[in-house]
Specification:
This protein is an alpha/beta fold. It contains 16 helices and 8 strands. The protein folds into 2 domains: about 220 residues; about 190 residues, von Willebrand factor, type A domain (Rossmann fold). α7 packs antiparallel against α15, α8 packs antiparallel against α10 and α12 packs parallel to α13. The N terminus is likely disordered.
């Protein structure tokens, strides 16, 4: 018995020691669990900080905070300043303005959209709140460009230049009304720049339209363009410097054909002034009678040609050849070269810093006193191709905006359905939201029509202004003619 008790005591002692040892061994395990718990909390905090973000970097919380800044357009000012949705920036303009419905308007966006909307719907499912979120996230990315085109559209009319005989300078170097007027229009990339808020190319094209219509009263007209091929990059220098196109062949002035030729010009590349003069010289070599080159340029030669030599060659070709140049918003170095070109071409250089200068330079410097303009009573742009062209442009731009509205409405409908399927809103809330979406689409349609009507009125006001100036000019010229016998 004593032996049994002794063995039992030893066994209990050993077990007690093992128990202490186990306790000591589990202490690090407890510490390890604590570390894992802390790491998990850090991961959860990181995940909370890494909310899904749209391409502008706005998390769902940030989207909620921005809703107060979102405007549901109700007037033209708000309509014309609407921005793209933050999630639609990668959608191409062509797709956003397509007449065809989308198979899946939320393709590639739905999951992120629902994540962004969680905080919004958790706070409010009021229809205007949801609509603002839709506009902010899913608004049509084509709106700024499509609406901007219509809002900023300025039609081009071939308004006649109406010179004032008492103000006109004497024609330089004995120039009279030329048998043929060759207009050389610079379409190099620098013409894409603005002067006083207007693109130089647009200003130059409008001036050429007016000049062509006026000089075409008594002269055949030709229009050459240069700098319109390729781009300003070195890789396109060859094609840009060797491409000179006669877009309106020498002939009697035709309003529709000349207008289309001018409107088709786009500024793109280098400035092959020398090659342009050479091309015009070679094309006119067989012509008899006085021929004047009228060059509108905003800069010097950039294609390594020698425009001074080419102008000299043109003037020496036959008697009655002249090279007149308007330097449009040029720097000093370019102006010096253009002056030399005009002098070598037995012509005149004129400086024009803005749109008014350009028109007045043509009116008071380029139009000969002998030009008979009394038939300008029939020269109103009303009823001409230019007006038809402008009306067509307005209609096309309005249709593009309507297509964009339809695309957005379609996407908003799908978004409402997606929210309901994700149980972020109820069926009743979805129904109310769909009604609000249709109301919004109708408001956008009405605002689009208001903008079209505004631009249409601006166009008609401009036509009335031109008509009034023509009528006043005719009366004054008749009176002047009577006074001079």
């Amino acid at each position: 018995m004593r032996l049994f008790i002794m063995l039992l005591s030893i066994t209990m002692f050993i077990l007690g020691g093992c128990s202490k040892g186990d306790h000591t061994a589990t202490e690090p395990s407890k510490s390890s669990n604590e570390e894992e718990r802390q790491e998990e909390e850090v991961r959860e905090e990181d995940n909370a900080e890494e909310e899904p973000k749209d391409e502008k970097g706005a998390s769902s919380v940030e989207v909620l905070g921005k809703l107060d800044e979102v405007v549901i357009p109700s007037n033209l000012e708000e309509f014309t300043t609407i921005q793209s949705g933050t999630m639609t920036g990668d959608i191409e303009y062509k797709e956003e303005t397509s007449i065809w419905p989308s198979l899946n308007s939320l393709k590639g966006m739905e999951e992120d959209f629902l994540l962004h909307m969680k905080d919004v719907t958790a706070q409010s499912t009021e229809t205007d709140t949801l609509l603002k979120a839709f506009i902010h996230l899913l608004g049509n990315s084509a709106y700024p460009e499509a609406i901007g085109k219509l809002a900023n559209y300025e039609p081009s009319f071939n308004e006649p230049l109406l010179p004032e005989p008492e103000l006109n300078d004497e024609a330089p170097n004995g120039q009279g009304t030329p048998a043929k007027a060759f207009i050389l229009l610079d379409a190099s990339s620098s013409m894409l720049l603005d002067v006083n808020g207007k693109q130089k190319m647009k200003v130059a094209k409008d001036a050429v339209l007016s000049f062509g219509k006026t000089i075409g009263t008594n002269s055949d007209v030709s229009l050459y363009v240069y700098g319109h091929a390729g781009s300003q990059e070195d890789k396109d220098m060859q094609v840009s410097c060797t491409t000179i196109d006669e877009v309106y062949p020498a002939q009697a002035y035709n309003e529709k054909a000349f207008f289309e030729a001018v409107q088709g010009v786009e500024a793109k590349g280098w400035t092959p002034l020398a090659q342009a003069i050479k091309t015009a010289r070679e094309a006119s070599a067989s012509y008899e009678g006085d021929i004047t080159l009228y060059i509108v340029s905003d800069g010097m030669e950039t294609c390594d040609g020698n425009p001074v030599e080419e102008a000299q060659a043109f003037a020496d070709e036959k008697e009655g050849r002249h090279v007149n140049i308007i330097g449009f918003n040029v720097d000093k170095k370019s102006e010096n070269q253009l002056k030399d070109v005009a002098a070598a071409g037995n012509g005149e250089y004129i400086s024009a810093d803005n749109a008014d200068d350009l028109q007045n330079s043509m009116k008071y410097k380029w139009l000969p006193d002998s030009l008979d303009l009394m038939n300008k009573s029939l020269a109103s742009p009303k009823g001409t191709f230019a007006v038809s062209f402008a009306n067509l442009n307005l209609s096309n731009m309005e249709s593009t905006i309507q297509n964009a509205i339809n695309k957005e409405t379609e996407r908003f409908r799908d978004a409402a359905s997606s929210l309901r399927e994700a149980e972020q809103i109820t069926e009743e809330e979805e129904a109310a939201l769909l009604i609000r979406i249709e109301e919004y689409g109708e408001t956008m349609r009405v605002l689009k029509e208001e903008l079209h009507a505004k631009k249409d009125k601006e166009m008609n006001d401009e036509l009335d202004r031109i008509d009034a100036e023509i009528e006043d000019w005719i009366k004054r010229m008749k009176k002047l003619k009577e006074e001079n016998g």
